[in-house]
Amino acid sequence: MFSRGKYGFNVASIRLVGVSKHFGDVKAVDNVSLDIADREFMILLGPSGCGKSTLLRTIAGLEDPTAGEVFIGDRMVNDVLPKDRDVAMVFQSYALYPHKSVRANIEFPLKVRGMDKTERAEAADLAAEVLGLTPYLDRKPGALSGGQRQRVALARAIVRRPAVFCMDEPLSNLDAKLRAETRAEIVALHHRLEATFVYVTHDQVEALTMGTRIAVMRDGIIEQVGSPQEVYDKPASVFVAQFIGTPPMNIFPAGTLEPGAHLVGGRPEDTTIARDQGVAATVVLVEHLGHEAQVVCAVDDQTRAIVRMNPSDDLPRNGETVRLNVAAEARHRFDSSSGSRID
């Protein structure tokens, strides 16, 4: 059913057809259809409560869909138990056994399956080598850093040689430095294993830097699916435009930046301060970040806009009235009612 990768690890495509998951009257996932290619690194991105973890758990078999079909390869797995789906789950909490050594933690899934002790040791050694854990095999989890413990959790998933890796915000417990380091390790791991990864996060930086494609979710539905560059360059809705990008896209009220009943968006790097044309705004804060300055402006009581500027430029002062403009070729237009992109 599955092809085999360079390192002998099983890989597979995933297909979701009209998948829904309801908890009483709450629609956690609402009629989601999504194709994830063999060996792809798919990111499920969205705010807390949008349904991304529920969708991941449905793929892994930890949740039964209320409606719809889940395929791994050519096989529908709705009625297949999690242990038989050939899926490895990596959780936000490391879920390691504190009384067991690193080696014993890595070997545990194989021990449960009755694998011979010698074969278990060989498989654990390989997984530890892939993740740089060989020097720590005899240590207990309590003697490891957060990043090392997360790598042990990854090694425990790798050792099973699954078709699919499902990761539910595995880096959220790490500090910023460790998060960046482990992010790079997971990307390298994906290339090394040539496996299919489905990765849940609310962190857009993780999404933009790790995924081959991103599925942006809101309120149980998928707003947009595309490569990181596609989602950034052509957001499908106001929600996606303001969720992707730091700072988020500026959205100007209808009729202010150009005639018409539609909203107009502009990335902070494409928004400029003009002296004689554009939308009138008041500077409320100038943030000096070293490599750049961010000028926060109030367009009206509900609308804020940010301009990214060179710190060596002539920066406006707090309280100063300025005009904001976005070059025509850099503007994004959205329907004022639905929020959908207008091409």
Q: What is the element layout, followed by pairings?
A:
Layout: E1 3-4, E2 10-11, E3 14-23, E4 26-36, E5 41-45, H1 52-60, E6 67-72, E7 75-76, E8 87-90, H2 102-112, H3 117-130, H4 146-158, E9 164-168, H5 176-193, E10 196-201, H6 204-210, E11 213-218, E12 221-226, H7 228-233, H8 238-243, E13 250-252, E14 263-266, E15 271-274, E16 279-288, E17 293-298, E18 304-309, E19 321-326, E20 332-334, E21 341-342
Helix pairs in contact: 2-3, 2-4, 3-4, 4-5
Entry keywords:
single chain; 343 residues; alpha+beta; Rossmann fold; OB fold (Dihydrolipoamide Acetyltransferase, E2P); six-stranded mixed β-sheet; 8 helices; 21 strands
Walk me through the structure.
By secondary structure, this protein is α+β, with helices and mostly antiparallel strands. The chain folds into two domains: 3-239, Rossmann fold (3-Layer(aba) Sandwich); 251-342, Nucleic acid-binding proteins (OB fold (Dihydrolipoamide Acetyltransferase, E2P)). The protein has eight helices and 21 strands. It has a six-stranded mixed beta sheet, with helices on both faces. The protein is globular and about 75 Å long. Residues 1-10 have low confidence and may be disordered.
Quick recap of the structure?
Helices cover 24% and strands 32% of the residues. The chain has helices at residues 52-60, 102-112, 117-130, 146-158, 176-193, 204-210, 228-233, 238-243; strands at 3-4, 10-11, 14-23, 26-36, 41-45, 67-72, 75-76, 87-90, 164-168, 196-201, 213-218, 221-226, 250-252, 263-266, 271-274, 279-288, 293-298, 304-309, 321-326, 332-334, 341-342.
